[in-house]
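Pilot study result, target chain (481 residues):
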Amino acid sequence: MSFSLHTSASTGKLERRVGLRSAVLFNMLEMIGVGPFITLPLVIAAAGYRLSVWAWVAGAAIAVADGLVWAELGAMFPQAGGSYAFLREIYGPERAGNWLSFLYVWQVGFTAPLSIASGCIGLSGFLGVFWPGFDSAPVAAWPALHDSNVAAAATCLLVTWLLYRRLSVITGMAWVLFGGVLAAIAGVIVSGFAHAAATGGWHWPAAPAPSAALALSGLAQATLITTYDYWGYYNICFLGSEVREPERTIPRSILLSVFFVSAFYILMNLAALPSLRDAATHTAESAALRVQLVADIARSAWGQWAGYLIAALIVWTAFSSVFSLLLGYSRVPYAAARDGNYFRFLAAVHPKHGIPHRSLVALGVVACCFCFFSLTQVITMLVITRILLQFLLQQFGVMLLRTQRPGLARPFRIPLYPLPPLAAIAGFLLLLIYRPHALGGLAVAAGIAVSGSVLYLLRARRLDEWPFASSSKSRSEKDLA
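Predicted structure:
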């Protein structure tokens, strides 16, 4: 399999069929995974009973600031691949943009399957609520292989199979999945308020108020957690070539999804506060036990059946998030291959379904293989690599475009510019500083960046591309432009 400068004429073209409601749906499906359900006690423990709600507000503020960057870029460059198209246009398709966009696709080849696999692993772990001992090792010779890993891989293959359809069918399935997501959120909120009403409501725990420095440190740690729970508001940008009226739909869908999800998260936190006053004692527990804490809220309010129902809906929510993740990321290798900046084999569009089917299957199979790793092995690499090789490059890039190409058509302009991109940069740098084991994550991100850069340079020399492009080629390209 080799790289090529041009895609085949038979690769086809994606159609613009996604409207505003579907765009908001795809964003929210990715945003609301298992994260908020298992991190509720972690947020309350880190920020404290009094400040935990503000951690969700601060996380939403960072999401809005970064979302405005995605909105301006997405409206300007509504193309498949999202960040791939942004970086290529910002830094020049015949200059460093060729390198950075290739580097982005290279890291997506690692982080996207890992992100999808992490959702599947998390989902399978929660099945232990129904089947105690589900995480056992069935083969003595392979102690690292658990039943949950097999279930995670099977989940990944099932999602790939479901997505191998026309986008109209996928949208219909997404609405069904979203119904279960809303039921899970509503169940936690209603159960929490019902339990609070039965136990006397909200009372501040009898504890001395922490110092200002300690309170700010705890709020920063909690905001780090909530920021992860908001990620996904940009999912529609990866489907840019399939969005109707992208100059309006993309910005509105990003802001609406952050608004709706932040309202859900804040209500969930308020509802859970009376039941999780001793959240700090549960921070060392496994994810399965922490999700059981949320299920216990419903069990305390309505009975045993309600606890199992909420746990089942949380598993449903995890599945929905994986569904949206694979849908969005499958467009990235396709977009790069279509531009001749990745494996040409992945540029194909299915003649009947009109989807990038080869890219979808390839990503699903790789994610399936990653399901046999542990969840803790991937989180740090995912977060730090994305911040360094994607988010920060876009935030600096949107300001670079304003300076170098002020006359470029901008269907959506960031309000209060340049405050939102600067606030997003500050927020993500905060995450890097406060994240545990950050040095290890930085080393992994550096390894991906170096290996991808070496591969790009070898390829660029062979294809006479930047920075090895001949002067005659550069002049001819400038004349054509």
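One observation from the pilot: The two ends are 31 Å apart (CA to CA). A full batch analysis is planned for the follow-on phase.
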